[in-house]
Each structure stands twice: as structure tokens, then as C-alpha cells.
Amino acid sequence: MSKQANPRRLADNEAKATVRMLRVSPQKLNLLAQLIRGKKVATALADLEFSRKRISVEVKKALESAIANAENNHELDVDDLVVAQAWVGKDMVMKRFSPRARGRAGRIEKPFANITIVVREVAADEAKAA
């Protein structure tokens, strides 16, 4: 008599990917999340490819992972996928100290962040409107 499986939290036409412990502040990562939110995945991948932000490489990997999850795990059509949600969360913060003048110490915080990307399959006519 085993425990019942967790119900799926996403809709049947959605897939998700999460990347944790990205070495960037959540504020900077949120700029990239805003860049791709609501776009078709092909456009979002192109935007991330040519973005000058350092962390865009990791965000692009996360988006590709969400696309692969949609294709392989949920049998969704890649051409009809849209970035439905992209949100950023705080992770741990490394605290370091740097010597300052007159025997004092300055605190340096090195933040980490998470990003979660949800892609949704929409009908072809709805995708053109978005």
C-alpha cells in the first residue's frame, strides 16, 4: 500500500524548468526574466543569444531545458510554445569582509538567485496574437 503520487501542479499544456544557485543578484536576473516573459520560445532564445548580460547563457539553458521537458515529457509541440511565466527568487547570500580604513571592516554580500521558467503550448492563431 504505497503513498499516492503527487498531483501535477501545472496544466496539461505546460512544462517547467528551474535553475538554482545562479551566481547573480536577483535584481539583475529579473531583467532577463522580464525580457523573455510572454514571448514565443524562438524569439526568447534569439533574445537571450544576443543579450550582452553574462548570466543570459544560464537563462538560455534553463529555457532550453523547459522546452526539452515540454517536448519529451509532455509531448507538446515546440513550435507552439510561449514563455508563460518566468520568475526569479532569492537564494543564499555569501558574506565576505574586506578591510577598510582605521581598522574597520566592510561587509561584501555575494548573492545567489533562482529562476523558474514555465512554457505553455498555445494554439497557432493565439500565438500570433501574443
Can you put this structure into words, describing what you see?
The model has no long low-confidence stretch (mean pLDDT 94). The protein contains four helices and three strands; from the N terminus they run βαααββα. It has helices at 26-36, 41-49, 56-72, 124-129; strands at residues 14-22, 81-99, 105-121. With 130 residues, it is an alpha+beta fold. It is flat and about 65 Å long. It has a single domain, classed as Ribosomal protein L22/L17 (Ribosomal Protein L22, Chain A), CATH 3.90.470. The protein is 33% helix and 35% strand. Helix 2 packs antiparallel against helix 3.
Distance between the termini: 47 Å
- Helix content range of the residues, please? 25-40%
Order of helices and strands: EHHHEEH
Number of helices: 4
Order of strands across the widest beta sheet?
Answer: 1-3-2
**Fourth CATH level, the homologous superfamily:** Ribosomal protein L22/L17
CATH class: Alpha Beta
Number of domains as seen in the coordinates? 1
Low-pLDDT segments:
none
* Rounded Rg: 19 Å
Amount of beta strand = 25-35%
CATH architectural type: Alpha-Beta Complex
